[in-house]
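Run: sequence + NAI -> complex structure.
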Amino acid sequence: AKNPLRVLVTGAAGQIGYALVPMIARGIMLGPDQPVILHMLDIEPAAEALNGVKMELIDAAFPLLKGIVATTDVVEACKDVNIAVMVGGFPRKEGMERKDVMSKNVSIYKAQASALEKHAAPNCKVLVVANPANTNALILKEFAPSIPAKNITCLTRLDHNRAMGQISERLKVHVSDVKNVIIWGNHSSTQYPDVNHATVTTSKGEKPVREAVADDNWLNTEFITTVQQRGAAIIKARKLSSALSAASSACDHIRDWVLGTPKGTWVSMGVYSDGSYGIPEGLIYSFPVTCEKGEWSIVKGLKVDEFSRAKMDATAEELAEEKTLAYSCLN
Ligand code: NAI
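>> structure
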């Protein structure tokens, strides 16, 4: 039998945490033959709720779950973890300025970066979910210089899955017959959901999504804004932000990263830019990637038209501004 892997979830007493930990304990993230030990971190005001989650994990009697660490101590939480899913953060509250939210999260991610760097297992893989996800991941990277940059990523897989969902609804095909959409850039409303290389499998074989939809106007306007605004639409409907879809997409992100993407398929991940597609180095930006043997690589050489270029640059610009804002909070 395989040795258990230690998986950290921060903010584990929150909404996404509550949806995510049972998925991990059931093998949805790392596979049905991979035992896990769950490390759950939250802050003191949530300690009792966190303990309640631990009680429920015990009660669910998961065969793959070999241990539970539930703690408010960041060092204990990070000890020897192989995977770290960073969901904990400070939410934007009414009347708060962007800068105030940024400042709170920058200090959280700076502190947690040091703890991970010192105490996590070598080669620990990190996924940042908490917003601003790309910039939190960048701060984490900057303050954990001994963790390789390629091990620090942020979640845009939810946006990727949302884009596939919209195409599937529009074409009345199953979502698993849609592939190779791309989310470029920031996990924010400036993200660019791109279907120019996406395909759909029909009874007559594989077809470009653009051809199957046959409505460029819809693809260039409503489709894009629907995906960009989907988070807000969920909040409006549920009075709470996306949680089950975020948790499920976080599992998709880690599973594909660790176990590999299917042949001929790519996914979107927020990763440290190497300058591909003219995106400045030094930003965590969502790119199309394939994964093999636990490593992602950016899909190169895709043709980028003028429409896409402008949208890819706009979201890069927003990330550069966020980076400046984040750095101004450090001083
Ligand atoms: P939530 O407010 O229900 O849970 C957040 C939890 O984090 C709370 O239990 C809180 O006590 C905890 N926390 C706060 N500071 C912490 C710290 N320093 N260390 C450890 N835990 C801490 O929020 P929810 O709905 O679970 O969302 C979590 C984050 O994920 C938010 O930032 C949200 O904006 C983001 N998000 C990102 C998505 C993505 O696709 N990247 C999608 C949906 C949400």
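>> summary
The longest strand covers residues 284-292. The two ends are 49 Å apart (CA to CA).
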